[in-house]
Amino acid sequence: MTSPALLAAATPAAAHRARSRTRALLGISLGYFMVLLDTTVLAVAEPDLASSLGSSTAGLQWAVTGYSVAFGALLLSAGAVADRHGAHRAFRLGIAAFGAGSLLSAFAPDIWTLVALRAVLGAAAAACVPASMALITRLYPVAAERARAVAVWAAVSGCAMAFGPMVGGVLVDLAGWRAVFLVNVPLAALVLGLVAGRTVHGPRGERRIDWWGQLAACATLALGTDALIALGDSAWPHAGWSGLGGAVAVAAFVRRERRSPAPVLPAAVLRARGMGALLLAGAAVNFALLGVLFVLPLLLRRELHLSPATAGLAFLPMTLPPGFNPLLTGRIVAKVGPWKPVLGGLALLAAGCGVFAAAVLLGTPYPLLAVGLLAAGFGVSFALPALVTAVVTTAPEGGAGAAGGLLNAVRQVGATLGVAVMGAFAAGPSLAWAMLLPAAACAAAALAVRRARRPLDS
């Protein structure tokens, strides 16, 4: 029987450990919040950024996609880096680089310097995301506690989607687009303070990293994106050379993957039944989400003459549901599984993009636009949490981590393509019909998921 003296000694120590874990979890969650905030907060700053730096639409596209290209491509190996060198080192280095890169971005003298710095921010973000999940796993080894911790992590990070455009709009109105980056500096310092100490720690491992394969993956995504942006800008020779370079990079990547002892893309995960359809769905969701977030602020400024702060508020029907709806999605997934919420979310997102097309054709009446925004917001918040569950449970034994990293990577690829493709129509008369492209992408992904689900249900 435990003596009262031992209980008295143990209770303060246990309370201290609990406080340390809670503080660390808050820091890890805020780090992910900062990374996701940077994907949405820049949206309403686009018009001010273009006028301040004299940027074309192509320059704006690269300011957005420079982040997602580096983020998406490097996510493929970021988990291996965290495993090999320690998740705490990768996370802290990523957060420090994110803060420093944000400070430099705030003083960028021209658009292409900003694009380069956005790529640095994407690389820093890639270092943080897999490491954050690894750290939560070590902080909460008990499954029930880990589930609650992941729920907190998801809820805090979901607020980035909810408040990103609104915060960005207020900052731009107060101090211009540069303030959007300055806000990350104290936030990064706060995160580093919260994760300091021995509580946040991950052991070193022996996992190998194929840097040549990773370089080929980055080149493939960057050159492909450049070709799409050049096509939208009618720069045909530029598009041709970038497309040719992208094809060479694809060939080099495939050749390297076949020979590598540590391939960038985990073959066993890719071969899992239904995985291809789920990854396609993840790419389609981000294609629609980031494509819409890129073109709608430009449209709202041009057609409705909204200030950045007002434009940020106008996005609330789309950005608020991801702040609370994942809790409902979690209950639905627990009751009926992840496949139906994925299908429902894709259907809502496709419908929302269809409403956007109708709104643009009718002169952009905001009430109709708000209906589309609401449908898209619920679609994203149903589809993405269920996709994470579906991908992890579909992955082969021991492949859940790699599958989660792959889902994040293809989502960033989808975001990159969304901005590149939709940006080509941002200033043209065919924008209304272009809004049907993300609707078609989500509808095609829904059909693929439905087809993949049938043999799994039988």
UniProtKB/TrEMBL annotation:
Topology within the bilayer: Multi-pass membrane protein
UniProt superkingdom: Bacteria
Keywords: Antibiotic resistance, Membrane, Transmembrane, Transmembrane helix, Transport
Chief location: membrane
GO biological process: response to antibiotic
SUPFAM superfamilies in alphabetical order: MFS general substrate transporter
Gene Ontology annotations for the cellular component aspect, listed alphabetically: plasma membrane
Subcellular location: Cell membrane
Entry keyword Translocase: no
PROSITE patterns on file: MFS (PS50850)
Chain ranges passing through the membrane: 24-45, 60-78, 90-109, 115-137, 149-171, 177-197, 209-229, 235-254, 275-299, 311-330, 342-362, 368-393, 405-425, 431-449
Ranges of residues in domain Major facilitator superfamily (MFS) profile: 24-457
GO molecular function: transmembrane transporter activity
PANTHER family cross-referenced by the UniProt entry: MAJOR FACILITATOR SUPERFAMILY MULTIDRUG TRANSPORTER MFSC (PTHR42718)
Name of the protein this chain belongs to: MFS transporter
Source organism: Streptomyces rubellomurinus (strain ATCC 31215)
